[in-house]
Input
Amino acid sequence: MRPRRTPNPKRQLQPKSNELESTSRLATLADAVTYGGNPEHKRNPGDFGLKPPSLPRQGKSLCDNAAIFLRSDAVNLLREGLRRGLVSCQQRNGWPQNIWAVTGHGLALEAMLENAAVGTYHGYPMLPEDPLAEEVIERWGQP
Output
């Protein structure tokens, strides 16, 4: 399988909003969000409990490259992305299709909804050439 060379152009950050209702809804989602993980994005399964333990697929970006080895770190980044409003315009069952975050080392991450009934996501580092990565990093740094 050939590695993906271009990012999905349909992804779009929801416009930044200071509305109390939006902020409150995102905080509620942040309290309920869960992280499922995906063995295709892991070389080292860490404490993610993935089955099979790890099965990196050629062309997939690896969480290992972002130094995320603990489920708690992944969940914290997901929650912070929600609280900061770094979510996609596209929604499924009240959950954003994508949530974005930035590591302490400045690496942009993307999480994709895998279960819209309960709000479970899996995430991975964004491609360096993805133009949306720059926007995510810029928005992450804004108050």
User: Anything to note?
Assistant: The longest helix spans residues 20-32. The first strand starts at residue 34 and ends at 35. Strands lie at 34-35, 91-92, 95-96, 98-102, 108-115, 120-125. The chain has a mean pLDDT of 84.
